[in-house]
Amino acid sequence: MTTTEEKQYKILLIGDSDVGKTSIVKRFSDDEFKEDLLCTIGVEFKMKSLNIDDQNITLCIWDTAGQEKFRALISSYYRGAHGIILTYDVTKRETFNNLQYWLNEIESFSTRSDVVMLLVGNKIDKENREVSREEGAEFAKKKAMLFIEASAKTKMGIQQAFEELAHKILETP
Ligand code: GDP
Ligand code: MG
Fold first, then answer.
1. pTM of the model
2. Which residue, of 57, 73, 136, 143, is most buried by count of CB atoms within 10 Å of its CB?
3. Ramachandran angles phi, psi of 106, nearest 5°
């Protein structure tokens, strides 16, 4: 029996520390965990298969191991990424204000001009919101990013986030 080769896409998570990047990946990937040599450079990644538009694809999701705290993500983290999930915490305005910093990093290090970007406003289950949905949507529109609000805690928006990103990647010529 032959196995069909599934297309693989590299997806990154970036954004300030504590916004919920790792929680988003864990929630989405359902504890399918794979550690590999990449961990030696302080990156974890998880593989997750998805069926999008009648195609089976595999997402290789790269998550930082805390280096973003020091704004020290190395350029190889970005290399070859098909999709980037830029995350902020809707209850912490500072993390929203810092989005431009991360966009500058993407601009400097991304090796693909057609990289698909998705902005995620996370932690919408919390009550002390500091960034409105409209502000998030407007910023995303201005920067040509997809946008979704989500909660890694309640699952809200998480599956949809990855599906929309994958859909857009497949659509990109
Ligand atoms: P990272 O540093 O961006 O990877 O953030 P983590 O995933 O480590 O999450 C930081 C903290 O926020 C942890 O205490 C999580 O439990 C919490 N957290 C993450 N996502 C959510 C969410 O959607 N809702 C709530 N209430 N807490 C969250
Ligand atoms: Mg993390």
1. 0.91
2. 136
3. -60, -45
